[in-house]
Amino acid sequence: MSEQPTAARPVFRFAPSPNGFLHLGHAASALINQRMARASGGRLLLRIEDIDTGRTRDEFVEAIGEDLAWLGVTFDEEPLRQSRHLPDYQKAADRLDALGLVYPCFAARAEILAAAHETGLRLDPDGAPVYPGLHRGLDPKEAERRKAGGEPYAMRLDMARAVALARERAGHAMSEQQLSWREMDAAGQVEMVFADPLAWGDIVLQRKDVPTSYHLSVVVDDARQGVTHVVRGKDLIHATAIHRLLQVLLDLPEPVYHHHDLVLDGNGLKLSKSDSATSLRSLREAGWTRGDVMAKLGFHDVA
Fold first, then answer.
1. pLDDT digits (tens, 9 = 90+) for 243-298
2. How confident is the model over 68-104, as pLDDT tens digits?
3. 3.10.20.80, 3.40.50.620, 3.90.380.10, 1.20.1050.10: which CATH number matches 1-84+264-303?
4. Are strands 43-48 and 80-81 parallel, antiparallel or unpaired?
5. What is the fold of 87-225+233-254?
6. What is the spatial distance between Cα 287 and Cα 35, in angstroms, rounded to a whole number?
7. pTM, full prediction
8. For residue 158, which of 102, 95, 228 has the smallest C-alpha distance?
9. 101 near 165, Cβ under 8 Å?
10. Contact between 190 and 141 (Cβ < 8 Å)
């Protein structure tokens, strides 16, 4: 069988953050991406999501490469480092600002939490208090004065306005307050999934010291890298509502999504980078082989 033209080939990506060593959960996600890319004749890309400069360490970046090579996961391009593309995220934020969809918030975390309790605590899909809109209507001149004074702030997305504009643009792709995306199961069957971005409240898009957030950078980079299939853990399925919203607002392509099962610890909880016992590096030092890891994760069919 002849190889498909590059432009027509599906594109997958594995996108770890270098704030700790990779563990079995990361291994599973990388291997699932590789298996799906190979099965579809597609390409697999690596993205290093290192926008959190306070937690990123060079040793973790190097370890990502070492661990993935040990697993036999290979990529079709040099890795993309998010920290080298901060101006691109700023441009995307500027586009949203020009649409009147972002505003500065100067409230500290404790102030936000207290206000959330006072107004009737509502939790987002991740279980965090929904932002109570403290500075949503702040006078622009007052905001500029406080910025000039050096106060810390975050730029938030006015979710109600954003959803209203997205409904105008997407038309049939939105049902009342819901946004839809294509979700593919393990057998390759695709169905439409609906979620309400308003459940997240006014999310943070930027902070004073970092001109982006996970949500903003991930949609910009998926478009930049031509990603057609986003394959990641089920812990991120609810965040897809935010990502589809930003894709509509920024006129970015819509990928197909697949959210796979998570690898859990003995207590049924998601694995953490702080648990050194599950890191690939510690397992390798304990004598595990690549075959041991793949058998543990059920990847007997991956070469």
1. 999 999 999 999 999 999 999 877 777 887 766 667 999 999 999 999 999 999 98
2. 999 999 999 999 999 999 999 999 999 999 999 999 9
3. 3.40.50.620
4. parallel
5. Glutamyl-tRNA Synthetase; domain 3 (3.90.800)
6. 25
7. 0.91
8. 102
9. yes
10. no
